[in-house]
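Fold it.
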Amino acid sequence: MAIVFQPTEGLTDKPFHYCPGCNHGIIHRIIAESMVEMGILEDTVSVASVGCTYNSYDYFSCDAVQAAHGRAPAVATGIKRTLKDKIVFTYQGDGDLASIGTAEIIHAAARGEKITAFFVNNAVYGMTSGQMAPTTLLGQVTTTSPFGRDASYQGYPINVSELIAQLTGAAYVERVCLTDFKNIQNAKKAVQKAFRVQQEGLGFSMVEFLSTCPTNWGKEPVEAMEWLKEKMIPQYPLGCFKGADIDFSKKEVQA
């Protein structure tokens, strides 16, 4: 019998701990598949941070390091500067990257560190009971914004990709989602482009994934996916914010 589908070698056999409907599993798979397809699995180091993804090192088959909360870009910087021939990526949620790790991600991008950040934005602190995150939408109910996020009291959501894209050291920044097959394929292309940018030494690269959190949103998985499309994408539009003109097919980088 012909094999039509099988697990990727980029993932271990350990079952995911994520809730039903969570998009982390899809993101893990496309990153893992990309490492295998690009032939970089044995030369890649992942940096796990704190949050829902604190134990992503259990799932990726590449080498991995655990970082303190928010400090993954700093740890990744040290690894990359020491082991220049390795591909180094961080895997971070919005609470980790956009809150306690704001300084680390901004300065890593500003310095043009040749690392890749995979940023999962589910608009809430997913691991620690669903508190408001920097990316929580206006009016969104969380455990620490029970009446909905109020801009006059809690400020506005932070559009991280747009912010990072303004920095000269950032070579490639794109925001994607995983709502259907087409978007999953686009997300995988973004992952591979981010890795390629790092391979070519062009500077800092980041892919932001809009992701669901059915448990903390209080929604069923299908309902959560619809909420992401209706509510999150208007606040966080999809697209490439930096590096759209990089064309590897022509073996050169457009100015």
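The chain has a mean pLDDT of 94.
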